Amino acid sequence: xxxxxxxxxxxHEVKKHAHIAIVFDKSGSMAGEKISYAIQGAQAFAxxxxxxxxxxxxxxxxxxxxxxxxxxxxxxxxxxxxxKSTTAGSGTALYDAVAEAFDKIGNERQTRxxxxxxGIVILSDGxxxxxxxxxxxxxxxxxxxxxxxxxxIQIHTIGIGxxxxxAVLKKIANMAHGKYWKVKNxxxxxxxxxxxxxxx
Length: 200
Prior knowledge:
Layout: H1 2-14, E1 18-25, H2 33-48, E2 54-60, E3 64-71, H3 72-84, H4 94-112, E4 117-124, H5 136-143, E5 154-160, H6 166-175, E6 180-183, H7 189-197
Parallel strand pairs: 1-2, 1-4, 4-5, 5-6
Antiparallel strand pairs: 2-3
Helix pairs in contact: 2-3, 2-7, 4-5
């Protein structure tokens, strides 16, 4: 296993680091076991990332807030603490949250170019009810990869529970080189987050 550990170390040294926004639905319907398992999943995802990866924690209900962002080596403890203390609110401004995350990662990308990889991981359990700025059509226009920009920002989406907007979450992931993960049993969301971490 020593050889394997060293191979893994070298791989981490040579692979491109990632800039990722973790977009998390804390609407009222997430209350209970859904949010507690989802928090464990988000923590597992953050823990699996490299110290040189840049992470942003972006939570939404009818409002959107980004409480922590930065290199994991500098903000890792605060990030895990912020994830752990997330509580359910009310409303679902899904489109606005995705648009804000896309702009945030897009700005990072303009600064750093192709030296790092870019991603967004979105978890939601319901349909958009509260977006004030973005619509699905606007998101589609934003996410559509241009021929000049084939790599883009990879977006993975997780639908948790029976009320998640499967069609929209699937569409967002498909447009952005990602995958849609359907989680019927909230306990399974932790493994899904761990699996998504391997993509970065």
